[in-house]
Protein backbone atom coordinates (compact mmCIF):
# COMPACT_ATOMS: atom_id res chain seq x y z
CA UNK A 1 0.00 0.00 0.00
CA UNK A 2 1.06 3.61 -0.40
CA UNK A 3 2.56 5.19 2.67
CA UNK A 4 0.36 7.10 5.09
CA UNK A 5 -0.89 10.34 3.57
CA UNK A 6 -0.36 9.18 -0.03
CA UNK A 7 -3.26 6.76 -0.45
CA UNK A 8 -6.61 7.87 -1.79
CA UNK A 9 -8.25 6.87 1.49
CA UNK A 10 -5.78 8.94 3.52
CA UNK A 11 -6.20 12.01 1.34
CA UNK A 12 -9.98 11.85 1.48
CA UNK A 13 -9.94 11.22 5.22
CA UNK A 14 -7.78 14.31 5.68
CA UNK A 15 -10.30 16.44 3.81
CA UNK A 16 -8.50 16.72 0.47
CA UNK A 17 -10.38 17.24 -2.79
CA UNK A 18 -9.26 14.62 -5.30
CA UNK A 19 -9.67 15.08 -9.06
CA UNK A 20 -9.82 11.86 -11.06
CA UNK A 21 -9.70 10.99 -14.72
CA UNK A 22 -12.12 8.39 -16.09
CA UNK A 23 -11.31 5.60 -18.53
CA UNK A 24 -14.03 4.18 -20.75
CA UNK A 25 -11.57 2.84 -23.34
CA UNK A 26 -9.95 0.55 -20.79
CA UNK A 27 -6.52 0.80 -22.44
CA UNK A 28 -3.54 0.65 -20.04
CA UNK A 29 -1.37 3.18 -21.88
CA UNK A 30 -4.24 5.70 -21.92
CA UNK A 31 -4.66 5.26 -18.16
CA UNK A 32 -0.93 5.79 -17.72
CA UNK A 33 -1.07 8.88 -19.93
CA UNK A 34 -3.67 10.39 -17.60
CA UNK A 35 -1.25 10.00 -14.70
CA UNK A 36 1.63 11.44 -16.72
CA UNK A 37 -0.62 14.41 -17.49
CA UNK A 38 -1.06 15.13 -13.78
CA UNK A 39 -4.06 13.15 -12.53
CA UNK A 40 -3.47 11.48 -9.15
CA UNK A 41 -6.36 9.05 -9.67
CA UNK A 42 -7.96 7.23 -12.60
CA UNK A 43 -11.30 5.40 -12.60
CA UNK A 44 -11.48 2.31 -14.81
CA UNK A 45 -15.12 1.84 -15.83
CA UNK A 46 -16.13 -1.82 -16.12
CA UNK A 47 -19.86 -1.02 -16.14
CA UNK A 48 -20.21 1.14 -19.25
CA UNK A 49 -16.62 1.09 -20.47
CA UNK A 50 -14.79 -1.50 -22.58
CA UNK A 51 -12.56 -3.08 -19.93
CA UNK A 52 -13.35 -6.43 -18.41
CA UNK A 53 -11.32 -8.85 -16.28
CA UNK A 54 -7.76 -8.95 -17.61
CA UNK A 55 -8.13 -5.58 -19.37
CA UNK A 56 -9.19 -3.87 -16.15
CA UNK A 57 -6.39 -5.66 -14.28
CA UNK A 58 -3.80 -4.34 -16.73
CA UNK A 59 -5.22 -0.81 -16.49
CA UNK A 60 -4.88 -0.98 -12.69
CA UNK A 61 -1.27 -2.14 -13.05
CA UNK A 62 -0.47 0.77 -15.39
CA UNK A 63 -2.03 3.32 -13.03
CA UNK A 64 -0.31 2.02 -9.92
CA UNK A 65 3.05 1.64 -11.69
CA UNK A 66 2.77 5.31 -12.70
CA UNK A 67 2.30 6.20 -9.00
CA UNK A 68 -1.41 7.07 -8.93
CA UNK A 69 -4.53 5.65 -7.29
CA UNK A 70 -6.49 3.11 -9.31
CA UNK A 71 -10.27 3.13 -8.84
CA UNK A 72 -12.61 0.65 -10.50
CA UNK A 73 -16.33 0.92 -11.15
CA UNK A 74 -17.61 -2.64 -11.27
CA UNK A 75 -20.77 -3.81 -13.03
CA UNK A 76 -24.16 -3.82 -11.28
CA UNK A 77 -24.22 -6.49 -8.58
CA UNK A 78 -20.68 -7.70 -9.37
CA UNK A 79 -19.45 -7.57 -5.81
CA UNK A 80 -17.08 -10.48 -6.43
CA UNK A 81 -15.28 -8.29 -8.96
CA UNK A 82 -14.86 -5.69 -6.22
CA UNK A 83 -12.75 -8.13 -4.20
CA UNK A 84 -10.73 -9.19 -7.22
CA UNK A 85 -9.97 -5.66 -8.37
CA UNK A 86 -8.75 -4.78 -4.88
CA UNK A 87 -6.62 -7.93 -4.92
CA UNK A 88 -4.94 -6.91 -8.18
CA UNK A 89 -4.08 -3.42 -6.93
CA UNK A 90 -7.09 -1.08 -7.02
CA UNK A 91 -7.38 1.23 -4.04
CA UNK A 92 -11.08 1.89 -4.40
CA UNK A 93 -14.26 0.37 -5.77
CA UNK A 94 -17.36 2.18 -6.99
CA UNK A 95 -20.45 -0.04 -7.03
CA UNK A 96 -23.43 1.08 -9.17
CA UNK A 97 -27.12 0.89 -8.30
CA UNK A 98 -26.74 0.49 -4.53
CA UNK A 99 -30.33 1.08 -3.49
CA UNK A 100 -30.46 -0.05 0.14
CA UNK A 101 -28.45 -0.59 3.29
CA UNK A 102 -28.47 -4.30 2.44
CA UNK A 103 -26.80 -3.57 -0.91
CA UNK A 104 -24.22 -1.40 0.85
CA UNK A 105 -23.53 -4.14 3.40
CA UNK A 106 -22.87 -6.61 0.58
CA UNK A 107 -20.40 -4.18 -0.97
CA UNK A 108 -18.59 -3.79 2.35
CA UNK A 109 -18.59 -7.56 2.83
CA UNK A 110 -16.59 -8.01 -0.38
CA UNK A 111 -14.31 -4.98 0.11
CA UNK A 112 -13.28 -5.23 3.75
CA UNK A 113 -11.52 -7.93 5.74
CA UNK A 114 -13.01 -9.32 8.98
CA UNK A 115 -14.28 -8.12 11.36
CA UNK A 116 -15.72 -5.34 9.18
CA UNK A 117 -16.41 -7.49 6.13
CA UNK A 118 -15.72 -10.95 4.76
CA UNK A 119 -13.13 -10.30 2.04
CA UNK A 120 -10.96 -13.32 1.33
CA UNK A 121 -7.21 -13.05 2.01
CA UNK A 122 -4.89 -13.10 -1.02
CA UNK A 123 -3.98 -9.71 -2.53
CA UNK A 124 -0.94 -11.15 -4.30
CA UNK A 125 -0.79 -8.75 -7.25
CA UNK A 126 -1.70 -5.69 -5.20
CA UNK A 127 1.18 -6.43 -2.85
CA UNK A 128 3.57 -6.93 -5.77
CA UNK A 129 2.65 -3.52 -7.18
CA UNK A 130 3.06 -1.82 -3.82
CA UNK A 131 6.16 -3.76 -2.73
CA UNK A 132 4.66 -5.08 0.50
CA UNK A 133 3.88 -8.47 1.98
CA UNK A 134 0.31 -9.74 2.24
CA UNK A 135 0.26 -9.85 6.05
CA UNK A 136 1.21 -6.16 6.24
CA UNK A 137 -1.33 -5.33 3.54
CA UNK A 138 -4.12 -7.07 5.43
CA UNK A 139 -3.44 -5.11 8.62
CA UNK A 140 -4.01 -1.75 6.94
CA UNK A 141 -6.32 -2.63 4.04
CA UNK A 142 -9.61 -1.82 5.76
CA UNK A 143 -8.38 1.72 6.36
CA UNK A 144 -6.49 2.16 3.11
CA UNK A 145 -9.02 0.82 0.61
CA UNK A 146 -12.24 2.64 -0.27
CA UNK A 147 -15.75 1.30 -0.84
CA UNK A 148 -18.12 3.74 -2.57
CA UNK A 149 -21.83 3.10 -3.13
CA UNK A 150 -23.43 4.79 -6.12
CA UNK A 151 -26.55 6.85 -5.47
CA UNK A 152 -28.53 7.10 -8.70
CA UNK A 153 -32.18 6.20 -8.07
CA UNK A 154 -35.12 7.52 -6.00
CA UNK A 155 -34.91 4.35 -3.91
CA UNK A 156 -31.26 5.05 -3.08
CA UNK A 157 -32.05 8.67 -2.20
CA UNK A 158 -34.85 7.50 0.09
CA UNK A 159 -32.52 5.03 1.81
CA UNK A 160 -29.53 7.38 1.90
CA UNK A 161 -29.42 7.81 5.68
CA UNK A 162 -29.45 4.03 6.17
CA UNK A 163 -26.82 3.53 3.46
CA UNK A 164 -24.53 6.11 5.03
CA UNK A 165 -24.92 4.42 8.41
CA UNK A 166 -23.42 1.14 7.13
CA UNK A 167 -20.19 0.40 8.97
CA UNK A 168 -17.25 0.04 6.60
CA UNK A 169 -18.78 2.06 3.77
CA UNK A 170 -16.37 4.92 3.11
CA UNK A 171 -18.49 7.14 0.91
CA UNK A 172 -21.10 7.52 -1.78
CA UNK A 173 -20.70 8.35 -5.45
CA UNK A 174 -23.39 10.12 -7.44
CA UNK A 175 -24.20 9.10 -10.99
CA UNK A 176 -25.90 12.38 -12.00
CA UNK A 177 -27.20 11.23 -15.39
CA UNK A 178 -28.93 8.11 -14.05
CA UNK A 179 -30.14 10.03 -11.00
CA UNK A 180 -31.88 12.62 -13.15
CA UNK A 181 -33.20 9.89 -15.48
CA UNK A 182 -34.68 7.77 -12.72
CA UNK A 183 -36.04 10.70 -10.72
CA UNK A 184 -37.92 11.86 -13.83
CA UNK A 185 -39.16 8.30 -14.47
CA UNK A 186 -37.30 8.24 -17.77
CA UNK A 187 -38.43 11.72 -18.75
CA UNK A 188 -35.04 13.41 -19.08
CA UNK A 189 -31.31 13.18 -18.62
CA UNK A 190 -30.59 16.58 -17.10
CA UNK A 191 -27.77 16.32 -14.53
CA UNK A 192 -27.26 20.10 -14.49
CA UNK A 193 -30.87 21.15 -13.96
CA UNK A 194 -31.63 23.23 -10.88
CA UNK A 195 -33.52 20.33 -9.32
CA UNK A 196 -30.69 17.88 -10.01
CA UNK A 197 -28.02 20.21 -8.63
CA UNK A 198 -30.09 20.81 -5.50
CA UNK A 199 -30.44 17.08 -4.88
CA UNK A 200 -26.74 16.50 -5.53
CA UNK A 201 -25.90 19.15 -2.94
CA UNK A 202 -28.21 17.51 -0.41
CA UNK A 203 -26.50 14.15 -0.93
CA UNK A 204 -23.05 15.68 -0.35
CA UNK A 205 -24.25 17.43 2.79
CA UNK A 206 -25.74 14.22 4.20
CA UNK A 207 -22.54 12.32 3.50
CA UNK A 208 -20.45 14.92 5.29
CA UNK A 209 -22.84 14.92 8.25
CA UNK A 210 -22.44 11.15 8.46
CA UNK A 211 -18.66 11.49 8.55
CA UNK A 212 -18.21 10.13 5.04
CA UNK A 213 -17.25 11.68 1.73
CA UNK A 214 -19.20 12.16 -1.46
CA UNK A 215 -17.92 11.63 -4.98
CA UNK A 216 -19.52 12.46 -8.31
CA UNK A 217 -19.07 12.11 -12.05
CA UNK A 218 -18.94 15.61 -13.53
CA UNK A 219 -20.46 16.12 -16.96
CA UNK A 220 -19.01 19.56 -17.73
CA UNK A 221 -16.64 22.17 -16.39
CA UNK A 222 -19.61 24.10 -15.00
CA UNK A 223 -20.86 20.97 -13.27
CA UNK A 224 -17.38 20.33 -11.86
CA UNK A 225 -17.25 23.75 -10.20
CA UNK A 226 -20.82 23.39 -8.89
CA UNK A 227 -19.94 20.01 -7.41
CA UNK A 228 -16.85 21.36 -5.64
CA UNK A 229 -19.00 24.16 -4.19
CA UNK A 230 -21.56 21.58 -3.03
CA UNK A 231 -18.96 19.73 -0.99
CA UNK A 232 -17.95 16.82 -3.24
CA UNK A 233 -14.41 15.67 -2.53
CA UNK A 234 -13.85 12.94 -5.12
CA UNK A 235 -14.62 14.37 -8.54
CA UNK A 236 -14.24 12.49 -11.80
CA UNK A 237 -14.02 14.81 -14.77
CA UNK A 238 -12.14 13.96 -17.92
CA UNK A 239 -13.21 10.76 -19.68
CA UNK A 240 -10.81 9.45 -22.28
CA UNK A 241 -13.44 9.23 -25.02
CA UNK A 242 -14.56 12.81 -24.40
CA UNK A 243 -11.02 14.20 -24.23
CA UNK A 244 -9.86 12.30 -27.30
CA UNK A 245 -12.95 13.33 -29.27
CA UNK A 246 -12.61 17.01 -28.37
CA UNK A 247 -8.89 17.09 -29.12
CA UNK A 248 -9.32 15.22 -32.40
CA UNK A 249 -12.10 17.55 -33.55
CA UNK A 250 -9.95 20.56 -32.67
CA UNK A 251 -6.97 19.31 -34.65
CA UNK A 252 -9.15 18.19 -37.56
CA UNK A 253 -10.84 21.58 -37.69
CA UNK A 254 -7.48 23.36 -37.51
CA UNK A 255 -6.03 21.34 -40.38
CA UNK A 256 -9.20 21.62 -42.45
CA UNK A 257 -8.99 25.39 -42.27
CA UNK A 258 -5.51 25.25 -43.85
CA UNK A 259 -5.80 22.61 -46.59
CA UNK A 260 -2.74 21.47 -48.47
CA UNK A 261 -2.62 23.03 -51.91
CA UNK A 262 -4.13 20.70 -54.46
CA UNK A 263 -5.52 18.29 -51.88
CA UNK A 264 -8.27 18.32 -49.31
CA UNK A 265 -6.99 15.22 -47.56
CA UNK A 266 -5.58 15.35 -44.04
CA UNK A 267 -2.58 13.17 -43.34
Features:
TIM Barrel, 13 helices, 8 strands, alpha/beta
Beta-strand portion reads 15-25%
Q: How far apart are the first and last residues' alpha carbons, in Å?
A: 45 Å
Instruction: Give the oligomeric state.
Output: single chain
Q: Briefly note the CATH topology name.
A: TIM Barrel
The main sheet orders its strands as: 1-2-3-4-5-6-7-8
Please, how many domains?
1
SSE arrangement, N to C: HEHEHEHEHHHEHHEHHEHEH
The low-pLDDT segments are none
- Helix count? 13
The pLDDT mean sits at: 93
Radius of gyration: 19 Å
**What fraction, in percent, of the residue positions are helical?**
40-55%
- What is the CATH level 1 assignment? Alpha Beta
How many strands? Answer: 8
CATH superfamily: Phosphoenolpyruvate-binding domains
Largest sheet: 8 strands, parallel, barrel
CATH hierarchy: architecture: Alpha-Beta Barrel
Describe what you observe in this structure.
The chain has an 8-stranded parallel barrel with strand order 1-2-3-4-5-6-7-8, surrounded by 8 helices. It has helices at residues 8-13, 28-36, 53-65, 79-87, 101-111, 124-130, 134-144, 154-158, 160-164, 176-183, 194-209, 221-230, 240-256, and strands at 18-23, 41-45, 69-73, 92-95, 146-151, 171-174, 213-217, 234-239. The chain has one domain (8-253): Phosphoenolpyruvate-binding domains (TIM Barrel, Alpha-Beta Barrel), CATH 3.20.20.60. β2 (41-45), α3 (53-65) and β3 form a beta-alpha-beta unit. It has 267 residues and is α/β, with parallel strands linked by helices. Helix content is 48%, strand content 15%.
Amino acid sequence: MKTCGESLASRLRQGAVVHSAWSNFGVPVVCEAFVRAGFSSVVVDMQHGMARGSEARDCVSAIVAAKASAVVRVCVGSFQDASWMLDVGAEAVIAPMVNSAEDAKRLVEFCKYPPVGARSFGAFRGCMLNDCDMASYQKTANEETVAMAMIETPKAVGALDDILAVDGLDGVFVGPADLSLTLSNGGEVAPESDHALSMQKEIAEKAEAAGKFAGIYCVSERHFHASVASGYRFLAYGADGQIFGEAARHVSSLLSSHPTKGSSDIY
